[in-house]
Structure formats: C-alpha cells, structure tokens
Design brief:
This protein has 259 residues and is of the alpha/beta class. It is built from 11 helices and 8 strands. The protein has one domain: Alpha-Beta Barrel (TIM Barrel), CATH 3.20.20. The protein has an 8-stranded parallel beta sheet.
C-alpha cells in the first residue's frame, strides 16, 4: 500500500493559484481526475490533498477548499481531504468544525509562511483545540520563517494529544525536525520536497523510529516519481519501506492496511 501524504487539487485560475508562470513545469490545474490519473500512473493507492495558494478573500478560500471536498467525495477511497484555514479569520474554528462534520475533511493544513503567523503563536491554539476535539491530524508547512521545526515542536509540546505532521521534513533544517520529533512523540515527519531524503531517512529512522515517518510528494508541484525514488534509494528494509510509503499513513488516517 502506498499513500501520498502531500498533494494539491486546484483550478486553473490565477486568482486561486497565483501567476500563470509561477509553477514552471507543474500543472496549471490539477482536477480530481488529474490526481487519480497521476496516482494510477505511479501505483499509488491514495493521497492526502489540500487546496493551493494564499488567502485572497474568505469566499475564495472556501471555494478552493470546496474543490478538494468534491474530489474526496467523488473518490472516497483514493482522495483524503485536509481543510486549509487561516487563523486570522474570525470564524476559522467554526470553519474547521463544518469542514469535518459537513464537508468530509479528515485533517487540517496550516501554512504559517503564507498567512503570516508563527507556528506556535497563541492564535493557533484554538485550531489545535478543535483538532483535538475532532480527533484529526494537523499538517504544518515546516520551513522558512514562522514555520521552523522548533516552533512546531513547541506547538506539539503544548498539544501532546494532537498528531502533528511536519511537512517537508524541515528541508534544510532536517536535523532540527528530527530533534523535535525525538522530543515530541506526537510529531510525524513527512518527506515531500526534502532534497536529502535519500541520504537522511535511514538515520532519522534510527533516531525516532520507522513508525514516525510518512512519505509525501507535493504533487503536482513536485514529481511523484522523483519523490518515490528518493525513498527507494534510502537503503531501507522492505518492512521500513512498507511503513514509510503507506502503512504509517494508513494508521494515522484510519485507513484499512494501517495495522
């Protein structure tokens, strides 16, 4: 079983995704059908998906989340939606509640760099309280200012009952990501777009255990084939590979095959 813990579904519209040239060789849009085709091409069973882009207006934010929710409803066995909210919005906690209970989302995605808040700021606390109440995991972008692994580690320490997925493995700060994961057993490290996955993954498993790492690609902004190859070149045993590529994700998401 292979589960991609980091993908995006979005419309081909600059107001949702930024300038038309921003994504280089990546798709200008990624529909639910595009995502299923990508998963099938690469032998991937399921994917966690989020919206793409920065907050423009509350309505735009809702509409972009709605695209992901519709994809997950259309392909419930293949696409798992995580809702993205902005903590600065007055109704953000209510939006999470509605997203999970009415729209079918299975987790929360936060990008501190995009919405300009430190990952461990008090403004985030009500969102983590709601995630705890709903029993959902929270994935947080984990590099650049406002989202360094140390800040996410502080947040994880404050909310030990919430599973926090540290997206991108901290990138250049991967040593910090491994350190905070060792200190906080509710942190999961996710590999998408980490340049050194093939070099550092075996050592990370030795530090924090194989059950604390999930694979992600950041598709279609990054190529699933390349992100898969990084993990397959990391010198893992068959059991470790099985857990990193899918079994750990299935356990966190409550999918069959996660035992």
């Amino acid at each position: 079983m292979i589960v991609d813990f980091h993908t995006h579904i979005y419309k081909a519209d600059p107001k949702y995704t930024g300038t038309s040239t921003k994504f280089g060789t990546a798709r200008k849009q990624c529909t639910s059908e595009d995502m299923i085709s990508l998963l099938d091409k690469n032998g991937i069973n399921a994917a966690v998906a989020f919206m793409l882009g920065r907050l423009l207006t509350e309505q735009d934010f809702y509409e972009r989340n709605k695209v992901v929710a519709e994809a997950a409803r259309k392909y419930p066995d293949r696409i798992i939606g995580f809702v993205r909210v902005n903590p600065w919005m007055d109704n953000c906690v209510e939006l999470i509640d509605k997203a999970v209970k009415e729209m079918g989302f299975k987790g929360l995605k936060l990008i501190p760099t995009a919405e300009a808040f430190p990952a461990n700021d008090e403004i985030v606390f009500p969102l983590l309280e709601k995630a705890k109440q709903l029993g959902i995991p929270v994935q947080i972008h984990s590099h650049q200012p406002n989202s360094q692994p140390a800040l996410i580690g502080d947040l994880a320490d404050r909310f030990p009952d919430v599973t926090i997925v540290l997206a991108h493995f901290g990138m250049a700060a991967y040593a910090d990501a491994i350190f905070v994961a060792k200190k906080c057993d509710n942190i999961i490290l996710e590999t998408s777009a980490e340049p050194w996955t093939h070099r550092i993954l075996k050592g990370a498993i030795g530090r924090i255990g194989v059950d604390r790492i999930v694979w992600g690609s950041d598709a279609p902004l990054h190529h699933q084939e390349i992100e898969l190859m990084k993990v397959r070149l990391a010198g893992l045993s068959d059991k470790e590979l099985d857990m990193v590529l899918g079994r750990n994700a299935a356990r966190i998401l409550g999918l069959s095959g996660g035992n």
